[in-house]
Amino acid sequence: MAGETNNLPELDQDKYDADEQVKIICLGDSAVGKSKLMERFLMDGYRPQQLSTYALTLYKYTTTVNGKTVLVDFWDTAGQERFQSMHPSYYHKAHACIMVFDIQRKMTYKNLTNWYTELREYRPEIPCLVVANKIDADMKVTQKNFNFAKKQGLPFYFVSAADGTNVVKVFREAIHMALSYKQNSSDFMDEVMKELESFDLKNQEDSDEHEDEETEKLNTA
Amino acid sequence: MSIVTKRCGVKFTPPSIVLIYETKETGRVRKRVIPVRNFSQYSDCSRAAERLKHHIRHGPYLEMVPLAQLERLHVVLRDHLRGLSLEQSLAALKGPDPDEEDLNKLGDEELARRKEQMDELFQRNRRRKSDPDFVYDLEVEFPEEDKRETCSWDEDQSDDEF
């Protein structure tokens, strides 16, 4: 996987290893509104960087989380989805994924399975959330259950890029998920924390060491 | 013009666009039959629709009628002149079943055209920053998952349910 970065000379993906940098990718069929959602979240402040050679658009976004500056790169597909799959570099080093479908077109919902399978091939562990877009076209869908997310154990949101419903919420959520994935405070670290808590006094010294490491990690990220 | 458009349709003989509208002052509902002239089975429907929309006498009455609708009505008229039935014409206008259409498979031009069609609704429902009631971080709660009914899209793997 590391070799893939060589294929994109304009794109230095090593920067995503830095604590304050996160990469969030968007996945979904053509015309489900991925770019429209991006633009609604960023409003006038967005500076998209078109990389037409790679059929992708980058949106840079800076925010503050717990007093720390975080630089977010959102990756959007710019038509690459029409090749039925994405270039491996699209997934490379991604910290979170937003999967989008259009509530007006069943095909885009059915295709989530394919997108999700591909995502998991490259990024088995990153947090992923599912959004049902264009609910402004038919509010009745919000009374319905879409099983895909539940089946995969993914958070699910009803959104509308047009009227703005839950768009900002979803993006903020994605940023938080990306950061916590990066800090590895997800499953693996939760286990470590649990273990530390259950340590008894005679192991105090040992656990203290671990704890120090961890606190440091959380603070710098 | 102070009228409210109610409905707009098409009549085959003589070829005409029929408009039902209400006059604001009197509240009376009226019908206006606009003859479609110089139109044949070879005519360009979007041009013909535009011509009508900007017609010096009829245009003002059609202000509230979207250009796309006028164009569709002309297509129905043209299809009739070509010998198609009304059902055939309407089915063709509807396009492929939106549930089965895979836009990933379309070429650039066709995809751009479909996106343009979708954009109509987007623009109509759009809340802009300049709107007085605009909320950037608009959060809406929807019923809990277990209170929602199963979506027909999940019912089974076959597509027969429609």
TrEMBL record, chain A:
<keyword id="KW-0342">GTP-binding</keyword>
<dbReference type="InterPro" id="IPR041835">
    <property type="entry name" value="RabL2"/>
</dbReference>
<feature type="region of interest" description="Disordered">
    <location>
        <begin position="199"/>
        <end position="221"/>
    </location>
</feature>
<dbReference type="Pfam" id="PF00071">
    <property type="entry name" value="Ras"/>
</dbReference>
<protein>
    <submittedName>
        <fullName>RAB, member of RAS oncogene family-like 2</fullName>
    </submittedName>
</protein>
<dbReference type="GO" id="GO:0005929">
    <property type="term" value="C:cilium"/>
</dbReference>
<dbReference type="InterPro" id="IPR001806">
    <property type="entry name" value="Small_GTPase"/>
</dbReference>
<dbReference type="GO" id="GO:0007018">
    <property type="term" value="P:microtubule-based movement"/>
</dbReference>
<keyword id="KW-0547">Nucleotide-binding</keyword>
<dbReference type="InterPro" id="IPR027417">
    <property type="entry name" value="P-loop_NTPase"/>
</dbReference>
<dbReference type="InterPro" id="IPR005225">
    <property type="entry name" value="Small_GTP-bd"/>
</dbReference>
<comment type="similarity">
    <text>Belongs to the small GTPase superfamily. Rab family.</text>
</comment>
<dbReference type="GO" id="GO:0003924">
    <property type="term" value="F:GTPase activity"/>
</dbReference>
<dbReference type="GO" id="GO:0060271">
    <property type="term" value="P:cilium assembly"/>
</dbReference>
<dbReference type="GO" id="GO:0005525">
    <property type="term" value="F:GTP binding"/>
</dbReference>
<feature type="compositionally biased region" description="Acidic residues">
    <location>
        <begin position="206"/>
        <end position="215"/>
    </location>
</feature>
TrEMBL record, chain B:
<keyword id="KW-0206">Cytoskeleton</keyword>
<keyword id="KW-0970">Cilium biogenesis/degradation</keyword>
<protein>
    <recommendedName>
        <fullName>Centrosomal protein of 19 kDa</fullName>
    </recommendedName>
</protein>
<dbReference type="Pfam" id="PF14933">
    <property type="entry name" value="CEP19"/>
</dbReference>
<dbReference type="GO" id="GO:0097712">
    <property type="term" value="P:vesicle targeting, trans-Golgi to periciliary membrane compartment"/>
</dbReference>
<dbReference type="GO" id="GO:0034454">
    <property type="term" value="P:microtubule anchoring at centrosome"/>
</dbReference>
<dbReference type="GO" id="GO:0000922">
    <property type="term" value="C:spindle pole"/>
</dbReference>
<dbReference type="GO" id="GO:0036064">
    <property type="term" value="C:ciliary basal body"/>
</dbReference>
<keyword id="KW-0966">Cell projection</keyword>
<keyword id="KW-0969">Cilium</keyword>
<keyword id="KW-0963">Cytoplasm</keyword>
<dbReference type="GO" id="GO:0005813">
    <property type="term" value="C:centrosome"/>
</dbReference>
<dbReference type="InterPro" id="IPR029412">
    <property type="entry name" value="CEP19"/>
</dbReference>
<comment type="similarity">
    <text>Belongs to the CEP19 family.</text>
</comment>
<dbReference type="GO" id="GO:0005814">
    <property type="term" value="C:centriole"/>
</dbReference>
